[in-house]
Amino acid sequence: MMVDKSKEVSPNEFEIGAVSKITGISQHRLRVWERRYDVVSPRRSESNRRYYSGQDVRKLLLIKSLLDGGNSIGSIASLSIKQLEEKIKSDPYLKTSDNKKKSFVIKAAVCGFDVVSKIENNSRNLKNLKVQLLETDFTTLKNKISKIDVELLILEYETLENQNIQEIYNFIGESGANHAVLIYWFSESKILESINKSLITPVRSPIELDELLIICNNLYNLCTDFELDLKNEARIFNFSQLASIASCTPTVECECPHQLVTLIYGLLAFEKYSAECESRNIQDAKLHRFLYETTSKARSLIEKALEKVAEIEGIEY
Question: Cα(221)–Cα(303) distance, rounded to whole angstroms?
């Protein structure tokens, strides 16, 4: 831990809340990584607040990219920024993702006073964000929302109330958007806890435009990389054949056929579970794809073993 009691935050430093917004890494996880892996060493102020440098943020963004690509924190925490950059360059999955990011444009509708002002003043720096509708008044938004084609809503409320959440759900339904970024200034915790995070990402204001763009880009990753290109091994036995084998009496005194059938049933169930399990982010999706394909291969191997046992035992199915 680097302690410096001579000054508070400088213009080139970020508090932990801002770093969490920029990187998509929770504040709790940032603290754990600092304590357990010494990923970065933010400066501590006289009041013991953490202040992260631009290099700290850069390193955390690189680590987040590698984590989203399936790497474990333990395997990359000690790498330098240069080593992390080299690892990303050599990862074919991340190369593909980077190419998608460069060519993709997120069509968005924006409503709110502060966020609209920031976008109007920085319209040339919106990168992947294409603003289809920009309004400061929600009544005007309601009248236009069904006539626009957008993927993302960016909505800013000063004080968040229950009716606002329902209003956002309505906006999502009427516009055909697949997600909304909710920027709020004040809210009760119970209202935030009630939000369906798969549809709405709440972000406390104030938020800088760069931070907002990073959040939007991360949401794009969630939407586009969730499609699992599932590759499964063809089944050798159907369910009636498995039931027939399980009910037979083997010529030798062993339970191999029955045990193999039980294993296959379990693997088939887990295959189905992995294919249908809901993913919350890229890393989840990649994990479920890995589990599905690995289980499929395991099931195929056990089926081949059962096929061999059935041949030797003379079991008809």
Answer: 37
The C-alpha atoms of residue 308 and residue 313 are separated, in whole angstroms, by: 9
Q: What is the pTM of this model?
A: 0.44
Q: What is the pLDDT of residues 212-252, one digit of tens each?
A: 887 887 776 543 333 344 556 788 888 778 878 877 765 55
SS3 293: helix
3-state secondary structure (DSSP) of residue 308 = helix
* CATH value of 104-224 in 2.120.10.30, 1.10.10.10, 3.40.50.2300, 3.40.50.2000: 3.40.50.2300
**Mean pLDDT over each residue of the chain, to the nearest integer:** 79
Decide: residue 102, CB within 10 A, 0-12 exposed, 13-18 middle, 19+ buried: exposed
CA dist., res. 117 & res. 125, Å (int): 14
How many helices (DSSP H) and strands (DSSP E) are in the chain? Answer: 14, 9
Region 282-306: mean pLDDT is 79
- Supply the pLDDT for residue 101: 46
Instruction: Label the pairing between strands 43-44 and 129-135.
Output: unpaired
| CB-count exposure of residue 177 (10 Å: 0-12, 13-18, 19+) | buried
Q: Tell which residue, 238, 253, 254, has the closest CA to residue 303.
A: 238
What are the sequence ranges of the domains in the chain?
2-90, 104-224, 239-313
Least confident window among 17-26, 36-45, 198-207: 17-26
The answer to whether domain 2-90 and domain 104-224 are alike in fold is: no
Read off the pLDDT band of 181 (50, 70, 90).
very high
Contact 236, 303 (CB under 8 A): yes
Q: Does the domain formed by 2-90 have CATH 3.30.70.100?
A: no
Run of H or E including 109: strand 106-111
